[in-house]
Amino acid sequence: MKVARILGIPFSIRGFHETVEELVDRIERGEQTHVVTANPEIVMIAQEHQEFRRIVEQAYVVPDGIGIVYAAKWLGLPIYERVTGIELLEALMQVADQRGWKVYLLGASPEVNRLAAERLAERYAGAKIVGHRDGYFSQDEEAAIVQEIAEHKPELLFAALGAPKQDLWMDRYAANLQVSLMMGVGGSFDVIAGKVKRAPRVWQRLHLEWLYRLLSQPSRWRRQLAIPRFLWKVVRETKKA
Protein backbone atom coordinates (compact mmCIF):
# COMPACT_ATOMS: atom_id res chain seq x y z
CA MET A 1 0.00 0.00 0.00
CA LYS A 2 1.34 3.42 -0.98
CA VAL A 3 1.55 5.82 1.95
CA ALA A 4 2.62 9.38 2.65
CA ARG A 5 4.29 10.02 6.00
CA ILE A 6 3.38 13.05 8.08
CA LEU A 7 5.46 13.36 11.26
CA GLY A 8 6.30 9.71 10.75
CA ILE A 9 2.68 8.50 10.52
CA PRO A 10 1.99 6.45 7.34
CA PHE A 11 -1.23 7.80 5.79
CA SER A 12 -2.97 6.06 2.93
CA ILE A 13 -3.01 8.31 -0.13
CA ARG A 14 -6.29 6.88 -1.44
CA GLY A 15 -9.37 9.08 -1.72
CA PHE A 16 -12.62 8.21 0.01
CA HIS A 17 -14.18 5.94 -2.63
CA GLU A 18 -10.88 4.17 -3.32
CA THR A 19 -10.47 3.59 0.41
CA VAL A 20 -13.91 1.98 0.68
CA GLU A 21 -13.18 -0.26 -2.31
CA GLU A 22 -9.81 -1.33 -0.88
CA LEU A 23 -11.24 -2.12 2.55
CA VAL A 24 -14.12 -4.10 1.05
CA ASP A 25 -11.63 -6.09 -1.03
CA ARG A 26 -9.60 -6.83 2.09
CA ILE A 27 -12.68 -8.09 3.89
CA GLU A 28 -13.67 -10.27 0.94
CA ARG A 29 -10.14 -11.73 0.89
CA GLY A 30 -10.35 -12.53 4.60
CA GLU A 31 -7.49 -10.17 5.41
CA GLN A 32 -7.68 -8.68 8.89
CA THR A 33 -7.35 -4.89 8.85
CA HIS A 34 -7.05 -2.38 11.68
CA VAL A 35 -8.18 1.04 10.47
CA VAL A 36 -7.07 4.17 12.31
CA THR A 37 -8.84 7.42 11.40
CA ALA A 38 -6.15 9.93 12.22
CA ASN A 39 -6.56 13.67 12.70
CA PRO A 40 -3.93 16.07 14.12
CA GLU A 41 -4.84 15.06 17.68
CA ILE A 42 -4.20 11.39 16.89
CA VAL A 43 -0.89 12.22 15.24
CA MET A 44 0.22 14.16 18.32
CA ILE A 45 -0.79 11.32 20.65
CA ALA A 46 1.32 8.98 18.54
CA GLN A 47 4.33 11.29 18.96
CA GLU A 48 4.22 10.76 22.72
CA HIS A 49 2.73 7.27 23.21
CA GLN A 50 5.18 4.58 22.09
CA GLU A 51 2.75 1.64 22.08
CA PHE A 52 0.11 3.60 20.21
CA ARG A 53 2.77 4.72 17.73
CA ARG A 54 3.65 1.07 17.05
CA ILE A 55 -0.01 0.26 16.36
CA VAL A 56 -0.50 3.25 14.06
CA GLU A 57 2.62 2.41 12.06
CA GLN A 58 1.18 -1.05 11.33
CA ALA A 59 -2.43 0.02 10.75
CA TYR A 60 -4.34 1.26 7.71
CA VAL A 61 -4.32 4.98 8.50
CA VAL A 62 -6.76 7.35 6.79
CA PRO A 63 -6.63 11.18 6.89
CA ASP A 64 -9.56 12.16 9.11
CA GLY A 65 -9.04 15.89 9.56
CA ILE A 66 -8.56 18.84 7.22
CA GLY A 67 -5.35 19.64 9.10
CA ILE A 68 -3.86 16.44 7.66
CA VAL A 69 -4.79 17.48 4.12
CA TYR A 70 -3.28 20.94 4.60
CA ALA A 71 -0.12 19.47 6.11
CA ALA A 72 0.21 17.13 3.13
CA LYS A 73 -0.12 20.10 0.76
CA TRP A 74 2.61 22.03 2.60
CA LEU A 75 4.87 18.98 2.53
CA GLY A 76 4.14 18.23 -1.12
CA LEU A 77 2.48 14.89 -0.37
CA PRO A 78 -0.34 13.32 -2.45
CA ILE A 79 -3.17 13.44 0.11
CA TYR A 80 -6.00 15.46 -1.36
CA GLU A 81 -9.15 14.64 0.58
CA ARG A 82 -10.38 13.69 4.03
CA VAL A 83 -11.60 10.20 4.82
CA THR A 84 -13.68 10.85 7.92
CA GLY A 85 -14.42 8.11 10.40
CA ILE A 86 -18.19 8.56 10.51
CA GLU A 87 -18.51 8.68 6.70
CA LEU A 88 -16.31 5.59 6.39
CA LEU A 89 -18.46 3.82 8.98
CA GLU A 90 -21.62 4.70 7.02
CA ALA A 91 -20.09 3.59 3.73
CA LEU A 92 -19.03 0.24 5.18
CA MET A 93 -22.50 -0.18 6.68
CA GLN A 94 -23.99 0.35 3.21
CA VAL A 95 -21.85 -2.50 1.90
CA ALA A 96 -22.78 -4.61 4.94
CA ASP A 97 -26.43 -3.92 4.11
CA GLN A 98 -25.94 -5.17 0.55
CA ARG A 99 -23.86 -8.23 1.43
CA GLY A 100 -25.40 -9.29 4.73
CA TRP A 101 -22.25 -8.72 6.74
CA LYS A 102 -22.19 -9.09 10.51
CA VAL A 103 -21.40 -6.04 12.64
CA TYR A 104 -20.49 -5.57 16.31
CA LEU A 105 -20.62 -2.22 18.10
CA LEU A 106 -18.42 -1.67 21.15
CA GLY A 107 -18.19 1.40 23.31
CA ALA A 108 -19.88 4.67 24.32
CA SER A 109 -22.45 4.95 27.11
CA PRO A 110 -25.15 2.27 27.52
CA GLU A 111 -27.84 4.54 26.09
CA VAL A 112 -25.75 5.79 23.17
CA ASN A 113 -24.59 2.26 22.33
CA ARG A 114 -28.17 0.94 22.36
CA LEU A 115 -29.52 3.82 20.28
CA ALA A 116 -26.68 3.58 17.76
CA ALA A 117 -27.35 -0.15 17.33
CA GLU A 118 -31.07 0.52 16.84
CA ARG A 119 -30.53 3.33 14.34
CA LEU A 120 -28.02 1.38 12.28
CA ALA A 121 -30.26 -1.70 12.28
CA GLU A 122 -33.15 0.42 11.00
CA ARG A 123 -31.13 2.16 8.28
CA TYR A 124 -29.19 -0.90 7.13
CA ALA A 125 -31.66 -3.74 7.55
CA GLY A 126 -29.61 -6.12 5.43
CA ALA A 127 -26.63 -5.87 7.79
CA LYS A 128 -26.65 -8.09 10.85
CA ILE A 129 -25.94 -6.27 14.13
CA VAL A 130 -24.85 -9.43 15.92
CA GLY A 131 -23.98 -7.72 19.18
CA HIS A 132 -23.36 -4.45 20.95
CA ARG A 133 -21.77 -3.59 24.24
CA ASP A 134 -21.19 -0.22 25.93
CA GLY A 135 -17.73 0.93 26.94
CA TYR A 136 -18.31 0.79 30.68
CA PHE A 137 -16.69 -2.56 31.42
CA SER A 138 -13.95 -3.67 33.77
CA GLN A 139 -10.77 -5.49 32.84
CA ASP A 140 -12.25 -8.64 34.37
CA GLU A 141 -15.07 -8.51 31.82
CA GLU A 142 -12.85 -8.17 28.77
CA ALA A 143 -12.29 -11.88 28.17
CA ALA A 144 -16.04 -12.49 27.99
CA ILE A 145 -16.50 -9.58 25.57
CA VAL A 146 -13.70 -10.87 23.33
CA GLN A 147 -15.23 -14.34 23.39
CA GLU A 148 -18.66 -12.99 22.46
CA ILE A 149 -17.25 -11.06 19.50
CA ALA A 150 -15.16 -14.04 18.36
CA GLU A 151 -18.17 -16.37 18.45
CA HIS A 152 -20.02 -14.13 16.00
CA LYS A 153 -16.99 -13.62 13.68
CA PRO A 154 -18.22 -10.24 12.43
CA GLU A 155 -16.87 -8.65 9.28
CA LEU A 156 -16.96 -5.26 11.01
CA LEU A 157 -16.09 -4.22 14.55
CA PHE A 158 -16.57 -0.53 15.37
CA ALA A 159 -15.09 0.54 18.70
CA ALA A 160 -15.98 3.85 20.35
CA LEU A 161 -13.70 3.86 23.37
CA GLY A 162 -11.78 7.05 22.60
CA ALA A 163 -8.20 7.35 21.40
CA PRO A 164 -5.81 5.79 22.05
CA LYS A 165 -7.77 3.33 24.23
CA GLN A 166 -9.90 1.92 21.42
CA ASP A 167 -6.89 1.07 19.26
CA LEU A 168 -4.84 -0.30 22.15
CA TRP A 169 -7.78 -2.55 23.10
CA MET A 170 -8.36 -3.87 19.58
CA ASP A 171 -4.65 -4.48 19.04
CA ARG A 172 -4.36 -6.34 22.35
CA TYR A 173 -7.07 -8.81 21.37
CA ALA A 174 -6.71 -8.81 17.57
CA ALA A 175 -5.56 -12.42 17.39
CA ASN A 176 -8.63 -13.62 19.31
CA LEU A 177 -11.40 -11.39 17.98
CA GLN A 178 -12.01 -13.21 14.67
CA VAL A 179 -12.87 -9.88 13.02
CA SER A 180 -12.18 -8.95 9.40
CA LEU A 181 -12.04 -5.17 9.87
CA MET A 182 -11.83 -3.29 13.14
CA MET A 183 -11.95 0.46 13.38
CA GLY A 184 -11.95 3.00 16.18
CA VAL A 185 -14.78 5.47 15.62
CA GLY A 186 -14.42 7.87 18.55
CA GLY A 187 -17.62 9.87 19.00
CA SER A 188 -19.42 8.52 15.92
CA PHE A 189 -21.94 6.54 17.98
CA ASP A 190 -23.02 9.78 19.69
CA VAL A 191 -23.77 11.31 16.28
CA ILE A 192 -25.57 8.21 15.01
CA ALA A 193 -27.60 8.00 18.23
CA GLY A 194 -28.64 11.64 17.81
CA LYS A 195 -26.96 12.81 21.01
CA VAL A 196 -24.43 15.02 19.21
CA LYS A 197 -25.09 16.93 16.00
CA ARG A 198 -22.53 16.86 13.23
CA ALA A 199 -21.58 20.20 11.73
CA PRO A 200 -23.97 21.42 9.01
CA ARG A 201 -22.88 20.84 5.41
CA VAL A 202 -21.81 24.45 4.93
CA TRP A 203 -19.37 24.17 7.85
CA GLN A 204 -18.06 20.91 6.41
CA ARG A 205 -17.56 22.45 2.96
CA LEU A 206 -15.65 25.35 4.51
CA HIS A 207 -13.48 22.85 6.42
CA LEU A 208 -14.61 24.35 9.74
CA GLU A 209 -16.11 21.24 11.30
CA TRP A 210 -13.47 21.39 14.03
CA LEU A 211 -14.61 24.94 14.94
CA TYR A 212 -18.27 23.91 15.01
CA ARG A 213 -17.45 21.09 17.44
CA LEU A 214 -15.48 23.47 19.62
CA LEU A 215 -18.31 26.02 19.71
CA SER A 216 -20.87 23.27 20.39
CA GLN A 217 -18.70 21.58 23.03
CA PRO A 218 -16.40 24.20 24.63
CA SER A 219 -15.00 21.50 26.92
CA ARG A 220 -13.07 20.22 23.89
CA TRP A 221 -10.69 23.20 23.96
CA ARG A 222 -7.89 21.27 25.62
CA ARG A 223 -8.07 18.60 22.92
CA GLN A 224 -8.07 21.25 20.20
CA LEU A 225 -4.70 22.52 21.42
CA ALA A 226 -3.25 19.57 19.53
CA ILE A 227 -4.05 21.35 16.23
CA PRO A 228 -1.63 24.31 16.61
CA ARG A 229 1.00 21.99 18.08
CA PHE A 230 0.63 19.70 15.09
CA LEU A 231 0.78 22.56 12.59
CA TRP A 232 3.88 23.99 14.26
CA LYS A 233 5.67 20.65 14.04
CA VAL A 234 4.71 20.34 10.37
CA VAL A 235 6.01 23.86 9.66
CA ARG A 236 9.29 22.93 11.32
CA GLU A 237 9.47 19.78 9.16
CA THR A 238 8.82 21.89 6.06
CA LYS A 239 11.69 24.24 6.94
CA LYS A 240 14.04 21.28 7.40
CA ALA A 241 13.17 19.88 3.96
UniProtKB/TrEMBL annotation:
<comment type="function">
    <text>Catalyzes the conversion of GlcNAc-PP-undecaprenol into ManNAc-GlcNAc-PP-undecaprenol, the first committed lipid intermediate in the de novo synthesis of teichoic acid.</text>
</comment>
<dbReference type="GO" id="GO:0019350">
    <property type="term" value="P:teichoic acid biosynthetic process"/>
</dbReference>
<comment type="pathway">
    <text>Cell wall biogenesis; teichoic acid biosynthesis.</text>
</comment>
<keyword id="KW-0961">Cell wall biogenesis/degradation</keyword>
<dbReference type="InterPro" id="IPR004629">
    <property type="entry name" value="WecG_TagA_CpsF"/>
</dbReference>
<protein>
    <recommendedName>
        <fullName>N-acetylglucosaminyldiphosphoundecaprenol N-acetyl-beta-D-mannosaminyltransferase</fullName>
        <ecNumber>2.4.1.187</ecNumber>
    </recommendedName>
</protein>
<keyword id="KW-0328">Glycosyltransferase</keyword>
<keyword id="KW-0808">Transferase</keyword>
<keyword id="KW-0777">Teichoic acid biosynthesis</keyword>
<dbReference type="GO" id="GO:0071555">
    <property type="term" value="P:cell wall organization"/>
</dbReference>
<dbReference type="InterPro" id="IPR034714">
    <property type="entry name" value="TagA_TarA"/>
</dbReference>
<dbReference type="GO" id="GO:0047244">
    <property type="term" value="F:N-acetylglucosaminyldiphosphoundecaprenol N-acetyl-beta-D-mannosaminyltransferase activity"/>
</dbReference>
<comment type="similarity">
    <text>Belongs to the glycosyltransferase 26 family. TagA/TarA subfamily.</text>
</comment>
<dbReference type="Pfam" id="PF03808">
    <property type="entry name" value="Glyco_tran_WecG"/>
</dbReference>
